[in-house]
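Write out this protein's structure.
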Amino acid sequence: MSNNLYNCCCAQFTFVTDPAFWESVRFLCRTSGPRAELRVQPLYSPEEKRRRDETPWTTVQGVLAPLQFLAFLISLALVARCLVTGEGYWIATCSVVAKTLLLYTIMITGSIWERVVFGRYLFAPAFFWEDVFSILVLALHTAYLVVLIGHIGSPQQQMLLVLAAYASYAVNATQFLLKLRAARIQQHSDQSAQLFAEVAK
């Protein structure tokens, strides 16, 4: 009877020595639990990347984005000076209007760029939350123009609205900078993969 029990146990647990069993265990460990490997969705598909690299609107965005950021820094300094000293209201106002016009321009050209690359003018999955926040930025800047043209509120109140608009712009600019970094990482990864593929041939 003991021999029969021993043989039965051996038959039941022979899977422990099966390499296929342990390979399955390793696979489950990699794909489940808190240490699971995360698969990051690429920012651009190969076709989208090709369209991005070919369209001249990419260059337009590359010029307008730093230009708008420079205008933002100059205008922010002028607005802060106006709020602190009470002087320079009109030059601060002109700087905000110029910054707002640049914002409108980059929103229009950015929508065209997004249409060329992703097939829609706004809210492409790769830039959905950036576009959502861009609408808020646009709304706050437009609200300032309405307040300015309608002579609503005091100069100080108008400048405080500008600060709110600029704070939202700073957040939005950070979002796009992070996406730019992600695009560069993806490009580096693609180049590395292509290099390894060529070496493996």
